[in-house]
Write a structure and sequence with these properties.
464 residues, alpha+beta, 6-stranded antiparallel beta barrel, 5 helices, elongated
Length: 464
């Protein structure tokens, strides 16, 4: 009995080994390539350049203090409340007041100096008249002395005295006339000092030069402001944010050549997810900046903010539209990147080569290659490559038609999976050979042209 049990066990082991070997042989022989396909579709495509920027007021005015002193009070805004962050103000409205005690005293001093200078002018002019009378008298005396000459009637000393008196009177007249000019100059100087004192006193009342909204208030009551080499900043006022606002976007130097004035732009902000704002390129600034060897240009995007949603300094994610096509055939970018194994290429097509991808967003004569099913093999289909949005690409070709299954990847299946050669690209699948990022893009749940919105066109390296 024991011997029979051992024999039975050996028989079972041999049978199991045979079954395993047969199964392994047949499963290996039945392995075949599973091609994953997505049909070519007709739709719209928009090529864009993505970049980030900030919302900026079109005109922001930094309000400073021209004089030094202590802030004693703030003005009132349009609603009658104390000026603060977000207050709306009109041009000429009082923003703050600085203690004006010293400047008021300086004004009074300047006024007194003007009064004194004004009184000195008539005194100097009266002195001129007096000197003119002296000159007249000295002239008459000197003329008589000249007629008599030094003689018994006029001593030599008296003659010389008349002459000296005449010369001195003329010099005194010239001095008196100069004193008049000096008094008038002193009056002008005093009046200028008065004007300076009056202006400094006016500077103690800080007024808004423009109509707008206060973005920042940088002082408090009781704080001392000191104006030395530069005016200290007290308020930052932006002009009307509902009609004058911009987006300043930093664009890489590789993409700036595709941006022109008037180009349409869409952008989003994190504060309002799902809301798309629209604008146009207003200006391409030429003062580029370099950060870690990366050169960027600032693009000014003009936009309308009539609803008041956009706030200054929000981060904006912008999309510059560089091209648009409607009703064109679209294939996933994975189809243009796919390269089959040599054994999967149809024998008559093995001499073909892969085309080149276009490196510009515009349709050009550059060609690419896509692959289509040919029984258990694939064969190439040359196409002309057009716009791309990073997920789908516009293609043209004589044999290309809407609905044609395009190979985007491959896997391995056994004989029991023969019925799954054409799988639903939107259903969960096992990973296949190819670009994983492209797989995720082509297996989305949206139609071509819908998920393309807001994606960046790889203008510098398409299809990579």
């Amino acid at each position: 009995m024991r011997k029979k049990g051992i024999i039975a066990i050996l028989v079972l082991v041999v049978i199991a080994a045979l079954v395993t070997g047969v199964w392994a042989f047949w499963s290996k022989g039945e392995k075949a390539t599973l091609f994953h396909t997505i049909p070519a579709r007709r739709g719209d495509i928009v090529a864009t350049i993505s970049a980030t920027g900030t919302i900026e007021p079109d005109a922001a005015v930094d309000i400073g203090a021209q004089v030094a002193g202590v802030i004693v009070s703030f003005g009132k805004d349009k609603r009658g409340k104390e000026v603060n962050w977000g207050s709306e103000v009109e041009a000429g409205m009082v923003l703050a007041r600085i203690d004006d005690s010293l400047y008021a005293a300086a004004l009074k001093t300047a006024q007194a100096q003007v009064a004194q200078a004004e009184a000195n002018v008539p005194a100097a002019e009266a002195n001129v008249l007096q000197q003119k009378a002296n000159v007249l008298l000295a002239t008459l005396n000197w003329e008589r002395a000249q007629r008599l000459g030094p003689s018994d009637a006029l001593a030599q000393s008296a003659y010389d005295q008349y002459k000296a008196t005449y010369e001195v009177s003329k010099a005194n007249l010239a001095s008196a006339e100069a004193a008049v000019n000096q008094a008038k100059a002193a009056l002008a100087q005093a009046r200028a000092s008065l004007l300076t004192a009056r202006i400094n006193l006016d500077y103690c009342t800080i007024k808004s030069p423009v109509k707008g909204v206060i973005i920042d208030r940088r002082v408090n009551i009781g704080q001392t402001v000191v104006s030395s080499l530069s005016a200290p900043s007290l308020f930052l006022i932006a002009s009307d944010l509902r009609h004058s606002i911009q987006v300043w976007v930093s664009v890489n130097e590789a993409d700036v050549g595709n941006i022109v004035k008037g180009q349409p732009v869409t952008f989003t902000v994190d504060a309002f997810p799902g809301h798309v704002f629209h604008g146009t390129v207003g200006q391409v600034r030429l003062n580029a900046t370099m950060t870690q060897n990366v050169v960027t240009y600032t693009i000014e995007v003009d936009t309308d903010n009539s609803d008041g949603k956009l706030l200054p300094y929000l981060t904006a994610n912008a999309q510059f539209e560089t091209g648009r096509r409607t009703g064109v055939l679209l294939v996933p970018n994975a189809a243009l990147r796919f390269t089959p194994k040599p054994g999967d290429i149809a024998p008559e097509a093995k001499q073909g080569g892969r085309g080149r991808r276009s490196r510009t967003p515009e349709a050009t004569a550059e060609r690419g290659t896509i692959w289509i099913r040919d029984g258990k093999f694939v064969r190439p289909l040359p196409v002309r490559v057009g716009l791309t949005d990073g997920a789908f690409t516009e293609v043209e070709g004589g044999r290309l038609a809407e609905g044609l299954p395009i190979v985007v990847g491959e896997g391995v299946r056994g004989a029991d999976a023969a019925s799954t050669a054409e799988r639903n690209p939107f259903a969960p699948q096992m990973p296949f050979r190819g670009n994983r990022q492209a797989q995720g893009q082509t297996e989305g749940s949206q139609a071509p042209g819908q998920e393309n919105q807001g994606q960046q066109a790889p203008t510098s390296k398409p299809g990579q």
